[in-house]
Amino acid sequence: MTVPAPKPWILGIAPYTPGRSTTDDGRKVTKLSSNENPLGTSAAAKAAFDAADRTLERYPDASAAELREALAAHYDLDPARIIYGTGSDEILHLAAGAYAGPGDEIIHVRYGFAVYEIATRRVGAEPVVVPDRDYATDVDAILAAVTDKTRVVFVANPNNPTGTFTVRSEIARLHAGLPDDVLLVLDQAYAEYLSPEEDDAGLALAMTEPNVLVTRTFSKIHGLAAERIGWGYACPAVIDAMHRIRAPFNVTTAGQAAAVAAIGDTAFVDATRAHNDTWRGWFVEQIDAMGNAGLRPVPSKANFVLVLFEGSLSADAAYHGLMEAGYLVRWLPGQGLPNALRITIGTEDETRGVIAALRALTDR
Ligand code: PMP
Asked: From what superkingdom does this record's organism come (predicted)?
């Protein structure tokens, strides 16, 4: 029997496999593996979600008009230059799909977001993976990797899974060094965790530079991961190209309503950022204090910390030990990080619990 042959280039993709919040023996564990908001979502967003039109037989607003207007008003943007997606994941796929294909190259850093490679291979393009500089994005390495086949560069800022941040002047230097026909995708999934002074000016760049696309999400600080809503900002030509291949009706009615309310609830965003600053700071201090056991935190500006295990306790053993203690974190051997765990900053109790469990493991 002959079966349909998939495109050879997709066979190089390892499917994205998130952690599960139950163990093999069915125990529920606390999920600190997907960088979700431990404080939940904004009460206003939840109320808007609950009050949203529940008509099941009608499609949502395909143009996401209210959502775009609300984003434009909040960030002082042109609503016509906003695209929306089923998570910002979809926008990353749209960028690759609109600008690259077989024979083309897409650059991302070695320790980068897993979807970059998936989006690249999906369209038959070749991922060009560049080295980091002590886990941080190395602008020179990216610029050195550019060839006449380069079509897209993906940079997350802050970066996942490292949490590292690339300052505004470095982003400007990266953009200035790229050919005009290369699309620079600045993935700002964690941008709201930065203080306003730390802003990398990505949106400002996307306002004036035709080859810059900024992507954002409601999954992280807004706590709306279940609804899958992301958005992007770029010049009209880039937005037009991505709309051509976007799935129709790609953001749900209730999701759009929740997102509009979430944008307005700046107090919730500020409270989440403050919580994250406090507990990430505490978490990092505690990991530093376990330095003699070989634990080392990578400096993070996001809602998670990458912890390196350079002593006798391996990341593998720590991952399983934390699971035993009731905490699911992210171990990323498949992404070249067999000696590290990425741990989301949870509630106070969760954060203290993870540290207590790690201390017990290092004391063993
Ligand atoms: N970019 C980065 C860097 C991420 O970490 C994530 C979520 N893990 C995303 C994009 C996608 O998030 P979403 O599709 O939920 O918007």
From this structure: Bacteria
30 lines ligand 1 (CB under 6 A): no
The answer to whether the beta carbons of residues 162 and 136 sit under 8 Å apart is: yes
Q: What is the pLDDT of residues 292-307, one digit of tens each?
A: 999 999 999 999 999 9
Q: Is 178 in the pocket of ligand 1 (CB under 6 A)?
A: no
Closest C-alpha residue for ligand 1 atom 14: 87
Instruction: Kindly give the distance from the C-alpha atom of residue 16 to the centroid of ligand 1, in angstroms, as a whole number.
Output: 12
Instruction: Output DSSP code: residue 226.
Output: G
Residue 290: alpha-carbon gap to chain centroid: 28
Tell me, using a 6 A CB cutoff, whether residue 160 lines ligand 1.
yes
Domain residues of the chain, as ranges? 8-40+267-363, 43-265
Domain 43-265 has CATH 3.40.640.10: yes
Residue 22 CA to residue 336 CA, distance in Å, equals 25
CB of 302 closer than 6 A to ligand 1? no
Q: What is the ipTM of this complex?
A: 0.99
Say if CB 246 and CB 85 are below 8 A apart: yes
pTM: 0.97
